[in-house]
What does this fold into?
Amino acid sequence: MTRVAHGWALRCIDCDTRFESDPPGYSCSRCGGLLEAVREAAGGPVSRTELFGRPAEGVWRFRALLPFEADVRPVSLREGGTPLVGTVNLPRELGLRNVHVKNEGQNPTGSFKDRGMTVSVTRAVQSGVRVLICASTGNTSASMSAYAARAGVTAAIIVPAGKVASGKMVQATAYGATIIRVDGTFDDALSMLLQTISSLPGFSGMNSVNPYRLEGQKTAAFEIYEQLGFSVPDYVVLPVGNAGNISAIWKGFKELRAAGLTEDLPRMVGVQAEGASPIARAFWKGSDSIVPVQSPSTVASAIRIGNPASGKKALAALKESDGMVLTVSDDEIVAARRLLASREGIFVEPASAAPIAALREIGPRLEKDATVVCVATGNGLKDPETIKVEIDGSPLVSDRSGLMALLERVASRNLVTA
Ligand code: F0G
It folds into this structure.
């Protein structure tokens, strides 16, 4: 068992047991609850320079708030440092003046998962692990496979058969992972893995129940704070599936406050697809327990999840931040994806368009000048099949005069397809 870094411990969110070494399977060995990394009082305040002083290092610039000793050697692909893009054409659509997109699709494997993976894989390698394993709707597996390749260890991924976007499978294959398909849902795959992982010596689980993953993912909050001129937004809106990311980003903002860098906190707004919305259902019922959705269904395969592993952490984040969870339909997701690409030039996968879909609904009810950050969690190229491409129906030219004639029609906005 590897000792937790000096000044840090892992704590069970259910029974409060404190661990000074990583327990097997990263779950509480007393009650099975979720763990979180806690910076203990000895850590003290952190200055802005200490936290933000190394801009070139991506996620690892935030070492002062990561559970590692100073001499850690990260397994890194220069993840993090993604742009916060202000929107120029959406404000009119949304009735909001100040909407920003945190474009996590610009991470090395095209999703926010890289922020967490660099940290959890670094930890696994420190612990002498030789095989990394995860259950995934696609992005976790693409990311883990890349970091495993980088670290020179083996990657095994478990995915729901036929339910993962093709780009993500292409990535896992290219990075050399062993792909195992489950005849069932993502929830079936994760539950099988979690039941098995503690009895597999030499394996380490890279799903977001691994608290080190969330330590990396919380750094998105630090960047948003810096990119908004060292202030926190009023709202952070993000898609919610297994619920690790909303928990991680909320933790990041709370740590900024605990470090003495801000007094304000944002309201967290989670967005789920209507057909996969167990957290929204619990939230609006005012319940602390999540009833799993047995056959989750949505076009947004990344968040097609019925039994979110970090659901408890997410409900706490929503409550503490005075936030909310909204649901959007598949049609709304598809339309929002098109809108973000065609009006702002930001192409995301379906799940990542859910926040824009939600803002179209609630925008008019928010303060017009509110600062809103939508987290665009994954790159659009990962999921090409959900866009109907009618390339064969577009005009075909074979000579210069044909091209000229066509372009004249384009110029007069009178293009008719052949
Ligand atoms: N957006 C994208 C693009 C995702 O891939 C995921 C999760 C989420 C949002 C939701 O994040 O689970 O932390 O609430 N994808 C996981 C995977 C489940 O296996 O790639 P979450």
Observations:
- The two ends are 67 Å apart (CA to CA).
